[in-house]
């Protein structure tokens, strides 16, 4: 009974502390959905070359797509002539971060992580894209049916051809669509994975001993980072849901660099995406993709550890303790809980068993 009480308390604390940042992120995702189309992105990514890779990484960073949701988009880009380097850059940079997870990262882990994270996603996208374009010359299979995403519906912002109507819509209609996508479609797509991330974070909070990482240093940092890579690459966790997990690990004593390695590798890959990427860019391309992701994660992990990173006491660095949460945070937690519950119920009523 004590375990259950501690678990529920930890879960609610995590939920409340991330609530308003996440709600703002969903609103931002809705705004982007009304002003950025697949056609616009593809027009700027067609062909090969560093400039296409650069633009692909830039455009991918703010988009609210997970490592599964990015796959059908990448498949459609391939069909209209986007090069494999730009595809790889998009696949690496997009799921690592987004407007929703930037807001959550800022709210839970502070401004340094919130700035460092999109920068790392951008650079790792470029590195992966250049590596694939330079070293991957093997043929790839023809376009295949993209796998059904276990977390994101296929009627995403890139598959809705509503641009022609936008000029004729009034302001109220646009705002309605922003809210409908941000707190409807996007919430339905991410609700389950978000709950999973919260559950994992709450479990880690009460199960990991306080001193488990205290005596690890030097070579121990490398072991920490390699462990995070082995843990993060096959696991599905979206960019927002990875934040409470990383925050709890830091609270338990793991180095910020090792936690950052998880923030990069966890959202950027999973077992489904790894298999599909091989078909999309070939076996050699896959090797370049996964190698560049690992190298960049380690590099940015060590770079993170060079800075005296401190997470605000208002963030989840102190989530190992059941601290007092404000009325404002409680209200946000209640609102977010209701939206998550509605989203899960709506998904089930649609007959979606994903």
**Main β-sheet description:** none
> What's the SSE pattern?
HHHHHHHHHHHHHH
Give the oligomeric state of the chains in this entry, treating copies of one chain as homo and distinct chains as hetero.
single chain
Query: How far apart lie the N and C ends?
Result: 32 Å
Mean pLDDT: 78
The 3D shape can be described as globular
Q: Please give the number of β-strands.
A: 0
The tally of structural domains comes to 1
Helices and strands in order:
Layout: H1 2-35, H2 38-45, H3 50-60, H4 70-79, H5 84-96, H6 99-109, H7 111-135, H8 163-166, H9 171-207, H10 219-232, H11 242-251, H12 256-268, H13 271-305, H14 327-349
List its traits:
354 residues, mainly alpha, 14 helices
Note down, in words, how this protein is organized.
The chain has one domain (2-349). Helix 5 packs across helix 12 (256-268), helix 9 packs parallel to helix 11 (242-251) and helix 10 (219-232) packs parallel to helix 12 (256-268). The protein is 70% helix and 0% strand. With 354 residues, it is mainly alpha-helical.
Write a compact overview of the structure shown:
This protein has helices spanning 2-35, 38-45, 50-60, 70-79, 84-96, 99-109, 111-135, 163-166, 171-207, 219-232, 242-251, 256-268, 271-305, 327-349. With 354 residues, it is mainly alpha-helical. The two termini are 32 Å apart.
